Amino acid sequence: MPIAKTFTERRIVTLLTLQEYADQIFGLPYRQPLKTIHEALAVHGWDASPFPEDYKPKCCGSEVSVRSFLGSAYRAECKVCHKFILDVTGPTFGNSWASFPDPKKVDLETDVEHVWIAGSAEVAK
Ligand SMILES: [Zn+2]
Fold first, then answer.
1. What are phi and psi of 119, to 5 degrees?
2. Suppose 35 and one of 40, 52, 59, 81 were both cysteines; which one would form an S-S bond, judging by CB atoms 3.0 to 4.6 Å apart?
């Protein structure tokens, strides 16, 4: 008669830092130290401080296009010059799905401020 025994397993998992995650998913032109929203805006001269509600930066004479998901903006892009800022913890969209960084693989909690990158071309994400 076999003896059934239950073990509670403890494992130590190494998470990628958000920076390491970003460096993996973005191509070389977009690799950069992650920025706060204000630092990312400032790269394009879109600074706004204090940060007003529903703030939309102006670029090339008009408001940039802002994409949000469940109420929080994760990407702003000028449709004219294609300068953009992007929250790397924001969703990646497929045809009928949205995915986010996996909290079992990526540390999303240690630094919630430095999650933005700034770039100046269309990025495939
Ligand atoms: Zn522009």
1. -150, 180
2. 40
Q: How many angstroms does the Cα of residue 108 sit away from the middle of ligand 1?
A: 30
Give 17 Cα–ligand 1 centroid separation in angstroms.
31
- Enclosing domain of residue 74: 18-119
Number of structural domains (the chain) is 1
Contact status, residue 54 vs residue 68, Cβ threshold 8 Å = no
Provide the whole-model pTM. 0.82
Flag whether 5 is in a domain: no
Structural domain includes residue 6: no
Q: How far is the CA of 83 from the centre of ligand 1 (A)?
A: 6
